[in-house]
Amino acid sequence: MVLVRQEIGDVLRDFRLQKGQTLRQVASRATVALGYLSEVERGQKEASSEILASLADALEVPISVIMREVSDRLAIVEGLSLESAVSDATYIPDSVISVPESYIPDTIPASFLADNDPSLASSR
């Protein structure tokens, strides 16, 4: 049986080691107890989304990158190639793939543009 917490722990440990950081350094920056972080990395404890966000910040890695790596590893453990998982219609339900046209906005809110690129907000 594949345990998601084990994969999350492995990914966190790998990112920490890639950055040459100690458990103590990451735990301190994330304001997480050293023993707790050790247990998370060993897959013995479930990390809440708040803890994962703190650890991602401490590691200077977007949480989306951490979760993508976890997902990729789970797919490998499950024996799925990423390409076949995406292309196999029985794996991804049609309701997930198709988006009703009514859900696609025909305009982009000015507030979104202003938040992401002020020069675009003034052109609308």
- Compute the CA-based radius of gyration: 19 Å
The fourth-level CATH homologous superfamily of one domain is: lambda repressor-like DNA-binding domains
CATH topology assignment of one domain: 434 Repressor (Amino-terminal Domain)
Tell me the span between the first and last alpha carbons: 53 Å
> Portion of residues in helices?
55-70%
CATH architectural name of one domain? Orthogonal Bundle
Shape from CA axes? Answer: globular
- How would you describe the oligomerization state of the chains in this entry? single chain
Q: How much of the sequence is in beta strands?
A: under 5%
> Which CATH first-tier class of one domain would you pick?
Mainly Alpha
Largest sheet: none
Give the uncertain stretches in residue-range form: none
Structural class by helix and strand composition: mainly alpha
- The overall average pLDDT, rounded, is 81
Total DSSP helices: 9
User: What order do the helices and strands follow?
Assistant: HHHHHHHHH
- Number-wise, the strands total 0
